[in-house]
Amino acid sequence: MNELLTGAVTGILFGFLMQKAQVIRYDRQLAALRLQDMTIVKFMLSTILVAMVGIYLLFDLGLIKLSVKPLILGGNVLGGLIFGIGWGIVGYCPATAMGALGEGRYDSAFGLLGMILGAGLYAEAYPLMKETVLTWGDFGKITLPSVLGINHWIVIVILAAAFIALFRWFEKKGL
User: Fold this and answer.
1) Is residue 26 a contact partner of residue 92, using CB atoms and an 8 Å limit?
2) What is the number of domains present in the chain?
3) Enclosing domain of residue 85
């Protein structure tokens, strides 16, 4: 029950932050897809940075174990294409669609129904994909620090500096 409560609290907090950052607005979604407004990109990069620091801090303190999923290029490329097409058609990604529905924007329900349908189709196609697409470009369970052969904190500091530089560039360009 504790895990469910933690998940509910963090989910509500994340939804609140998405709403405050205005990333669940349809016009922001479309502007991001058209590379005219980088609010969503900045939010995503900030989320990635916070998650990297939090996860590796908890890992270093011995409070969690990492469960790294294998890097399979075939699945990532196909999944990314399907995700991107769906985002472009609907104007929402899964998290922002849930946030928009929470705000009372019922147009997001169509996207959510499409995601449920897509999950069902994936489940049906999985046996075939397991033997084909999900074997293409299987690099195993790797991480950027393990590939580079350096401490994960070095990667985090470099990415943090790169993200901050990118944020400043976006602000300078008015994005």
Assistant:
1) yes
2) 1
3) 2-173
